[in-house]
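Database export, one record per block. Field names are fixed; values are copied verbatim from the stored entry.
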Amino acid sequence: MALKEQLRMDLTAAMKSRDELRAATLRMALTAVTNEEVAGKKARVLSDDEVLTVLTREAKKRREAAEAFDGAGRPELATRERAEGEVLAAYLPAQLSDDDLAEIVRAAIAETGADNAKAMGQVMRVVQPQVTGRAEGGRVAAEVRRQLGA
């Protein structure tokens, strides 16, 4: 079943069970997917990978908003954002552990022959397709920098 259809079915189930948080979060996610579909010159249907990218972006927004609310002294709003992030996380692939990420980066460095920070772009081009949706770009870049000694 397509990921978008799964989101729609889960939204219906959340509405029937009167789960306000889940329903609101899934509505927001489906709206983001629809906006992505109609963005640009021509409307299109997103593939599961593209839907996953949209969900990853939305989950990241929730994490950042929770941090901002914490910093502003609004713990009740931060809690809500984290709860929405958890709902979205159920649709995302499991995140890579630090050890797994380090191993992927190590292999990419060996593959590209990179030996300094100037080669970071080459390493990132090899690593990024392997970790898409399973690790945030900033986390990947930090690991690449660490291993290249930058």
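Remark 1: The domain at 98-148 is CATH 1.10.10.410 (Arc Repressor Mutant, subunit A).
Remark 2: The chain has two domains: 3-89, 98-148.
End of record.
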